[in-house]
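Need the bound structure for pyridoxal-5'-phosphate, inputs here:
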Amino acid sequence: MPEPRHDFARLLDEARRGLDANYTEHGNPAFARMLRLTGFDRAWRSAHGAILVDAAGREYIDCIAGYAVHGIGRAHPDMIAALADALESGHPNWVQFERNPLAALLARRLSERVPGDLSRVFFSNSGTEAIECALKLARRATGRSAVLHCDLAFHGLTLGSLAANGNPKLRDGFGELGDSECIPFNDLAALERALSTKRFAAFLVEPVQGKTCLAAAPGYLAEASRLTQRHGTQFVIDEVQTGIGRTGKFLALEHDSGCRPDMVVLSKALAGGYVPVGATLVRDDVWSKTFDSMARALVHASTFQGGVLAMTAALMTLEIHDRERLSERARDLGARMAAGFRESIARHGAADEVRGLGLILGFPLRKSASEKMLARLPLLGSLEQLAFGQSFAMELLETHGVLCQVTDSHTNLLKFTPPLTIDAAQCDAVVRAVDATFGSLSGGLRATATGAMHALRNAAGRV
Ligand code: PLP
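Answer from helper R.:
Posting the output first, comments after.
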């Protein structure tokens, strides 16, 4: 019997021992400072389902889930077995000049689940790449180049996707971006006004905005389908974050029965969080405008598209989604968590509303007297990352072992996107943690002060 090899353990051990020096000299120092200040700079040892375990053995309920990629939960045994099987099979990856069987099967399974006739699928490796594909195909199909998007939209950070980003802070400083226009989310009159100029190749929209957790109003997506069709603009629904069950249906657009997109974009949870993948689903007539001859068969392509591991992971994710009824889980557990948040908010009056659908939930904290007071304190005011929302997230992490995020360093929106395999007891524990943190808020400055204390301790390097 050959000796078992432990190369991963050896590499990880070396990486851990060298982390301080390696990251300081070769990593992103601004990000390292932010992690230290917010207390998120922890060493993680293991994970299962919705649980992350740190180096000291403490368990945390993960309500970030890798920015909503771990839909099926971490360490899923069926996924691990399928990926190990694929690796060990010796099946050749990226032959390139072949009709990729796994990609063709996944394309069929995806297009069968999407309303309308989106029969062609282009695979890529991330959300932003899948959006780039949609933009290129829309430009080619319409002969137009401008893109229409919503306020605070997020579709990725490569240059094409950035042109459709609704946050000036993320756009600034990167030179001239492609022609684009921003309209308010959920505003059909503004949409119709913009579309009637007939200058837009595509209208991009998220059914639940990742940065605001606001959901499309009932009927908005259906009416947007009609308007875009009338004005010759491609209607691109960005389901990168909402797809594969997160909102309580396989796609969030299914909440609006009249919605008929020209393209649907998927990524994140599509391969369960195990392998990066992106997918752009598109109608045949739109597809064939770009790939319109043998000479142009590869005018849009990517070396790593359709990889064996990515395709296997995505096919397995669909099977696990169906077997474990993950959309239904997201619907029921999301409703349970949202009801818990609402009850707590009503009792403490510290937030205005609970936003979202299924297991993408958020609430904006009320700007409180404590925040204003915090800003006036010269030392704490200078800790610019320490927005009120961040101190709330720090308190949840440090005191209650719940990992969640604010969507931007200066917003007060707390956001929760746990794995869809989270159980009812874990959902209730998250609600209790939020309630306890609200409780300490209404008692005065305590949560803010505790958050500030965590930050000061972290800034002083004592974590
Ligand atoms: N679209 C949406 C709605 C997203 O939430 C994201 C990422 O958060 C993207 C696109 C970009 O995906 P990626 O980070 O994989 O490029």
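Comments: The chain has a mean pLDDT of 92. The pocket of pyridoxal-5'-phosphate is lined by residues 67, 126-128, 131, 154-156, 206, 210, 238, 240-241, 267 (CB under 6 Å).
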